[in-house]
Amino acid sequence: MEYPSNANGISFFLTAAYMYPQVPLLLVMVQFGSRLSFNARILTCLVIQTAAMALMPIVAHTSMWTTLAIAFVLGVTCAILQSSLFALTRCVCDLLLRRKP
Fold this sequence. Notes:
- By secondary structure, the protein is an all-alpha fold.
- 77% of the residues lie in helices and 0% in strands.
- It has four helices and no strands.
């Protein structure tokens, strides 16, 4: 398999920029995620993702590196959001299972 070396292969680079930060950041969130509240993690990530997605069509045609940077930011925020929502779901399930009818 030959790696693309120009902007025509941006789809290859987008996948890498989006996925590569996710696994290490998920591991970091498992270790240190409890230091921030769920509200701070979830709302901050949603605001950053909204801003990044709003900027994507505006700056996508200017530079490949800008597009890749936005994809990287989306990957980072997605990893934080995913781990936070999994932890929140576990906490909510624990609360619901403790209640006795």
